[in-house]
Write a structure and sequence with these properties.
The protein has 10 helices and 2 strands, in the order αββααααααααα. By secondary structure, it is mainly α. It has a two-stranded antiparallel sheet. The longest helix has 95 residues. The N terminus is likely disordered.
Length: 455
């Protein structure tokens, strides 16, 4: 009986030591500290898709890009100027928050398991009537409870969940606006490209229309500020290790802001739509004019190009003529030299000589001499004509280069005008479909996501 008791006591102590050792090893680590915020790795360098930074959940994980599948040292949050950039930033933060929430919940489970194991060890101590074993088991259970209470694991997990939910909220609000709106209303730098004239005082809603323009033109800095505030709210909650309570007044204020924004957008729409229709007409006219200018520039460039080709052909013809005539002149001069070499004293005056041989040679000498002289005059004339043609060619090259530059400029202007007209039509369609109303109300909707985290 004593031996059984000793073995039971020894076994219980072994379990107790195992529980305590495992508790210290598993629950230890600075990852549980509230101020150690889990955030993505953000590298500030421009991306090919217009994003301002590279977002990763860890240094070795693939980059996070909105619309693409993907599975820290936290940098600043740059002002992303495209919807893909903003949503990628949100996805990175949300993913980091969810990851830490899961880790904390796992730690809670581990602490609960050690608490249960300590209770079992304490029960064994009672069963074998061992006060030491009972107290040690109770101590292990208390240690697990104390550990969880010290780091307030559930509070931390709740804070991360709340922040992740807020990011989800912002993401959904942004994602509700179609890509066609963003591409027609903003460039890659986040600049609102719709002319301010589209928001002039028409339809009796000047103030609301102006407010709408200010809201849309500051869209990306506003979204960035809200994302930043959510992240900072998490930092504040973790620093105080508290769960912020959402007051009824917070919700009421958020709803009031949303209702006001929605009403303002609805009030501004008639003015914006009227101006947008006018803008479409103006942009379409401008595009037509630029297309006409492009046609004129093309005709001018084609004409200049044709003139240049003609002058080049003339120069080539003159060169060919000069080469042919020079060759002929050389042949006559060679024949004259050959005749004089054979008859050094031969003159052209001997064509009527009674010596038939000298008479024939003199006739040939006369013909070659006259031909060489005529060819010399032709060569001189064609050389002069070639010089004129070359000058004309140089001028034609200058004119063609200018016409080509004007054509390129006209093409760029025509493309820009066509794009502006297309964007104006898209924006007008977005107004008709109610997308612009939603976009104008987006900042207030996103602010409501932040309000849901409490003060």
């Amino acid at each position: 009986m004593r031996n059984q008791f000793s073995r039971a006591t020894h076994g219980a102590r072994g379990v107790t030591l195992l529980v305590l050792s495992a508790a210290m090893a598993t629950l230890g680590g600075c990852s549980l500290m509230p101020n150690n915020i889990n955030e993505p790795v953000i590298s500030l360098h421009a991306q090919a898709n217009g994003m301002k930074a590279d977002y990763r959940l860890s240094k070795d994980s693939p980059p996070i890009v909105a619309g693409q599948m993907s599975d820290g040292d936290s940098g600043v949050l740059p002002v992303e100027t495209t919807p893909v950039g903003v949503k990628s930033q949100i996805m990175a933060l949300r993913g980091s928050y969810r990851s830490r929430q899961t880790e904390l919940l796992r730690e809670i489970d581990v602490a609960s398991n050690f608490q249960f194991a300590g209770i079992i060890v304490s029960a064994i101590g009672v069963g074998i009537k061992s006060t030491g074993t009972r107290n040690t088991g109770a101590g292990a259970a208390g240690l697990a409870t104390l550990w969880g209470d010290h780091y307030k694991l559930m509070v931390q997990a709740t804070n991360y969940k709340t922040a992740a939910d807020a990011m989800d909220c912002v993401y959904r609000d942004i994602d509700a606006i179609p890509d066609s709106f963003w591409s027609s209303a903003y460039d890659l730098n986040g600049t609102f490209v719709i002319p301010k004239d589209t928001f002039t005082d028409k339809g009796g809603a000047g103030k609301d229309a102006t407010t709408a323009y200010d809201t849309l033109s500051k869209m990306f800095p506003t979204l960035n500020n809200n994302v930043y505030e959510i992240d900072q709210k998490l930092h504040a909650n973790q620093a105080s290790v508290t769960i912020t309570a959402v007051q009824v007044s917070d919700i009421q204020n958020a709803v009031t802001s949303q209702v006001t924004a929605k009403a303002g957008a609805a009030s501004a729409v008639p003015a914006i739509k009227a101006a947008a229709e006018s803008q479409v007409a103006s942009a379409t006219t401008e595009s037509g004019q630029k297309q006409a200018q492009l046609v004129t520039a093309k005709v001018k460039a084609d004409t200049a190009g044709l003139k240049l080709t003609n002058f080049r052909n003339v120069v080539q013809e003159k060169n060919a003529s000069l080469e042919r005539l020079t060759t002929q002149k050389t042949e006559h001069e060679t024949q004259m030299m050959s005749l004089r070499s054979a008859m050094p004293d031969l003159t052209v005056m001997e064509v009527n000589s009674k010596d038939s041989k000298r008479s024939q040679a003199a006739a040939q000498l006369k013909l070659s001499s006259e031909s060489a002289f005529a060819l010399t005059r032709q060569i001189s004339q064609i050389t002069s004509e070639k010089s004129v043609a070359e000058n004309n060619q140089k001028q034609a090259e200058t004119d063609a280069a200018l016409a080509s530059g004007e054509l390129q400029a006209a093409q760029a202007q025509a493309e820009e005008a066509a794009k502006a007209a297309a964007n104006a039509r898209k924006f007008k369609d977005m107004i008709t479909l109610g997308v612009v109303d939603t976009a104008i109300a987006l900042p207030s909707n996103v602010s409501a996501c932040l309000a849901a985290m409490g003060k």
